Amino acid sequence: MGATLCCIGMSSKKMCLDEKLERKIAEMRRYKFGKSKLKSVDSIVMLFPMFKERLKTLRGMFEQYDEDSNGSIEPSELKKFLEHLELHLTEQEIENLFQYCDLDGSKGIQFNEFIVLLCLIHLLAEPSSSDNSSKAELAQVGEVFNTIVEVFVFFDQNGDGKLNQKDMVRTLNETNPRERSPARISKRRFQEMDWDKNGQVTFREFLFGFINWVGIDADE
Fold it and tell me: I want to staple 32 with a disulfide (CB 3.0 to 4.6 A). Which of 28, 132, 166, 186 is the partner?
C-alpha cells in the first residue's frame, strides 16, 4: 500500500504529486461529477458549515499523533502516523510527503496542513483490507474530501487541473451575477491560494486556501 504516493527525488516531488492529483481529479471529473449539484458560488458557501463541522472532527486524530503537543506534526510523528495507516514508505518518500504538505515551510505540519495530508492520502493511497480507528475516521470524512474536489472542479472550468486568476474571477462573477465580487476581493482570494506566486493554483494550494475560507482555525 502507498505506491501511488511515492515520488523519488527532492526536486521533482511536488511536481510528481501534483501530476498524480491532476490525473486523479480528471478521473473523478469524468466518472463522478457528471451531474454536479454545485451551480453557483452560493451553493458552495451554503456547504461551509458542513465542511467546518466535519473537518474539525479530525482534530482528535491530529492531537493523537502530535505526541509532544507542540501544535505540529514532525517527520518522526508523521512516520508513526503513516505506519498506523499501513502506508509503507521509505524515509525519503516520507520526507518528500512531509515537505509537500508543509505549505508554509515551518518545518512542521499544522492542523490545516494535516487536513491537506489526509485528503492527499484519501485520493491517492491504495485501499487496504485491514482496519483501525484512524483509517475508519479517514474513510468517514472521505465524502467531504470528494466534495472539496468537486468545488475545485467547479472553478477549474477548462479542466487542466489548475486554476488561474482570470478564470476564477470570471467563474465567481458569472455564477453569481447579481452579487459580483469586487475585483480586488477576487484577486486577493486567488493570491491567498497561489503560494508559489506562479499565477496558477494547484489542488494542494486550493485545498489549503479553501480550508482557511471555511474558517477552520489552526489555533482553536
Answer: 28
Alpha-carbon distance of 96 to 20, in angstroms, equals 14
> Which three three-digit cell numbers place residue 41?
458560488
CB-based contact 28:146 (threshold 8 Å): yes
Q: In the block, which residue shows the cell 484519501?
A: 122
Q: Please, which residues bridge with residue 73 across strands?
A: 109
Model confidence, pTM: 0.84
**Residue 173 burial class via C-beta count within 10 angstroms: exposed 0-12, middle 13-18, buried 19 and up:** middle
Pairwise CA distance, residues 162 & 160, whole Å: 6
pLDDT of 205 above 50: yes
What's the N-to-C CA distance of the chain in angstroms? 33
Helices (H), the chain: 13-31, 41-45, 48-56, 59-65, 75-84, 91-101, 111-124, 133-140, 142-155, 165-174, 183-193, 203-214
Q: How far apart are CA 118 and CA 97, in angstroms?
A: 11
Q: What residues pair up with 201 in beta bridges, in sequence order?
A: 163
C-beta of residue 203 within 8 angstroms of C-beta of residue 25: yes
Cell, residue 163: 486554476
Contact 73, 63 (CB under 8 A): no
For residue 213, name the pLDDT band (cuts at 50, 70, 90). confident
CB 102 within 8 A of CB 109: yes
